[in-house]
Amino acid sequence: MIRSTVTAHLAETDRSELTLQINDRDIGVLAAQEQRHYVMSGNRRVQMIAGLHTNPADHASVVAARALLRNWLVSFRELQINGLNRFPLIAERNRLNARFLLLMDSDYVLVWCKPQFGVYLHRGHHLYRQQPTYRPDQPSLAHFGRSLDFYAFRAREGDDLLIIDPAFIDLFDAVDLEDLLVDIHQINVSMTELTRLAQSYGRKADTTWFSAQIQRLEADLEMLSAESRERVSGRRSGQRQETRWLDQLRLSKVVPLLDGNVRVNPEGLVVAGHTRPMQALTAYEPKAPVFQSVWQQGQDTSLAGPIRRGRSGPEETRGGLGPAATQGGRKGLLDRAKRWNTNAIRDSLLGIHRRMTHLVPGSRGLSVLAYIALWLVILVLLVSAVYALKGDGKDKNGDPDRPKVTGSDPAVSTPKTEFEIDLVVKASSLRVVSSPGGDELVASLTRGDKVTQLTGAKDGWVLIRLADGRSGYVPESLLLASDDGS
Description:
The protein is of the alpha+beta class and 486 residues long. Helix content is 24%, strand content 23%.
């Protein structure tokens, strides 16, 4: 069982002659609704996209294509029952043919397509180009897709598959494509943005493409296979073990897109009736597209701005200094500062931003939430650090405008006294301060509290001692002798 999301887009030119059978639905010229775009998601034993070419002006071609579409629909339903291992038998019995075919189950991804298409795989945050491999060595498939390239590879959960014209991929930088296509949930948005960029530079970029995101793989139980049912029913002997044709396939090789958008044919591969020689990877030098937008017509070609950035070309260097900084001998510090640019720093920051917004592979929403949560944690840490620094710089004694309260510290010595007279407080509330007219509060007394006067009045203030041994100054007018305390 495979859970995947399959997306197909037909260019305007292909929509007038091509019909796609996507599982049990169809789009294109012979479909009930001539759609250009279709998305299908769900759990299937086999996922399928079959493309048929039709000449709408030829009645016989239309009738034959409609009959073939019915055969593909019946074949798809039979594949759901018997599995992908029965495809050679089904293709021979139903006389199937197609200009494009994508088949997927929990083990393999098989693609038959024209040589004008490239098969790209996004796995582990990197983009690879699959290479054609040898067609299945099955007599029942001898006449199926003889003019088409064949690809075969094993599927993994989280794989993103894109089938598109390689010339379109050549328009863009490989690193940017890897970052942009990391979330296949947004494949429609990503392809729309890429098409808009290409068209803004005068490139006709309406092209047909297919994509598939593999979300979950569950191996089929052996008891559900067609061979197991036939053995149980007695139509096949349990002693005869046939080798699955899928296990005999030679899987496709891959080339990272960072090493170039190259195509390497297996040695001796025959396509369209002729043999194409092996192409060495080192002999291939990918070339940037050369085209001009409308406003650049008639201008110097040096002003043309291709979409793809040179990785190490003379137009731009990633180190930060432009080409003019390396000409005319050594330049002074001021000259180098004038010619210095921030492209490298900007690209690094953008790269970090892209990686941070794709923390959770395959889920754009969770990645954004994780990114926001990370910034909130950083903000909380910064605020905590600022408050900690402010707390260390504060006055240990607190606010200077606030009265200071002293405790009964026995280590503090009492001032020198002149005499000792017992007195009673006559005010309803009396503040005892550390110095005459000062603000540092020692204690607060109320009417009737008994104190001992220690010195004579100086500027209206006298030194007193409290019952707990603390001392301070109070106005002399707010005290009464002990004989008059009542």
